[in-house]
């Protein structure tokens, strides 16, 4: 009999003993976690904690050194993204010379599941001029275009690597609100990485806290902070405890 666990196709992400080692050392170690459906997940941790590495393993852009990861039951192949997954990298790669309309045309050409009307609706909601070139847009507008490109694919899982990093506080709030509205109404699982947990407090319902390549805290926010302790405080306490354990 095969004792190997069957991957759960309903789970956006499931990882068991997952690790990634670069030449300089381990970026992620012994990571076992599950990301349930329809959640807004905060993937947080200080610089170098392993957030981008975990995203790279989910997308298949990186191969695990140890362990296993499945995305909707499939092991990432490394040959392009899973059809149900959209990924927005930290640098928000967009063609600067394209207009917004041309950017959406590019989305249509490169995604078999593209929903043009939905992408146009998202641009309209953001009040971004469609004939403007990407290079001339503000940081907030560029983020909205990048999000329309990512959401236009109609993903079930959306991975956003520090999407708010270059935005001012007002733009952060607007972009986040628009994103959460879409995720909730469309039933999309969103993984948002950030090293500022405070900006995701009240927004996320699931937390994954990484520190030095290890998962320090993970799970449902309601359960983790059942006594009402703010998430930021919870995370900080857990990191302090880890530092003390290391020093001992
Ligand atoms: N391509 C690479 N080659 C070698 N080391 C790498 C590579 N990418 C990341 N690392 C190292 O792996 C560790 C985790 O990096 P990673 O980028 O995953 O962290 P992060 O939590 O996303 O950090 P940040 O918040 O600064 O973006 C760091 O020590 C980093 O220097």
Description:
The protein has two domains: 1-84 and 157-171 and 179-248, Rossmann fold (3-Layer(aba) Sandwich), CATH 3.40.50.300; 91-154, no CATH class. The protein is of the alpha/beta class. The mean pLDDT is 90. The chain is globular, with a radius of gyration of 18 Å. Helices cover 33% and strands 24% of the residues. Bound molecules: adenosine-5'-triphosphate (ATP). Residues 22, 24, 27, 45, 47-53, 195 line the site of adenosine-5'-triphosphate (ATP). This is ABC transporter ATP-binding protein YtrB. It comes from Kibdelosporangium persicum.
Secondary structure elements and their pairing?
Elements: E1 13-22, E2 25-35, E3 40-44, H1 51-59, E4 66-70, E5 85-88, H2 100-110, H3 116-125, H4 139-151, E6 157-161, H5 169-186, E7 189-194, E8 206-211, E9 214-220, H6 221-224, H7 231-247
Parallel strand pairs: 3-7, 3-8, 5-6, 6-7
Antiparallel strand pairs: 1-2, 1-4, 8-9
Helix pairs in contact: 2-4, 3-4, 4-5
Bound molecules: adenosine-5'-triphosphate.
The site of adenosine-5'-triphosphate has 12 residues, from helix 1.
Q: What overall geometry do the principal axes of the alpha carbons give?
A: globular
The fraction of residues assigned to DSSP E strands is 15-25%
Count of spatially separate domains: 2
Quaternary structure = single chain
Biggest sheet character: 6 strands, mixed
Work out the number of β strands: 9
Percent range for helical residues? 25-40%
What is the string of helix and strand elements? Answer: EEEHEEHHHEHEEEHH
- The CATH architecture category of the largest domain equals 3-Layer(aba) Sandwich
First and last CA, distance: 45 Å
The main sheet orders its strands as: 5-6-7-3-8-9
The H-level CATH homologous superfamily of the largest domain, spelled out, is P-loop containing nucleotide triphosphate hydrolases
Bound molecules: adenosine-5'-triphosphate
Number of helices: 7
- CATH class type of the largest domain: Alpha Beta
């Amino acid at each position: 009999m095969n004792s190997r666990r069957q991957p759960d196709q309903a789970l956006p992400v499931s990882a068991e003993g997952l690790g990634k080692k670069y030449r300089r050392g381990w970026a992620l170690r012994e990571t076992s976690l599950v990301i349930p459906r329809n959640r807004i997940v905060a993937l947080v941790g200080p610089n170098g904690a392993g957030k981008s590495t975990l995203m790279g393993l989910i997308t298949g852009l990186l191969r695990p050194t140890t362990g296993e990861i499945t995305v909707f039951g499939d092991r990432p192949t490394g040959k392009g993204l899973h059809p149900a997954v959209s990924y927005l990298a930290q640098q928000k790669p967009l063609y600067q010379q394209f207009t917004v309309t041309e950017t959406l045309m590019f989305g249509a050409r490169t995604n078999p599941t593209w929903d043009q009307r939905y992408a146009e609706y998202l641009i309209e909601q953001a009040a971004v001029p469609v004939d403007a070139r990407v290079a001339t847009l503000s940081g907030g507008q560029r983020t909205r275009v990048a999000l329309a490109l990512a959401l236009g694919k109609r993903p079930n899982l959306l991975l956003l690597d520090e999407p708010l990093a270059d935005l001012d506080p007002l733009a952060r709030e607007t972009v986040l609100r628009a994103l959460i509205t879409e995720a909730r109404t469309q039933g999309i699982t969103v993984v948002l990485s950030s090293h500022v947990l405070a900006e995701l407090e009240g927004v996320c319902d699931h937390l994954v806290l990484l520190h030095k390549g290890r998962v320090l805290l993970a799970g449902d926010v309601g359960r983790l902070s059942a006594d009402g302790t703010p998430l930021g405080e919870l995370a900080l306490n857990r990191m302090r405890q880890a530092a003390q354990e290391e020093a001992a």
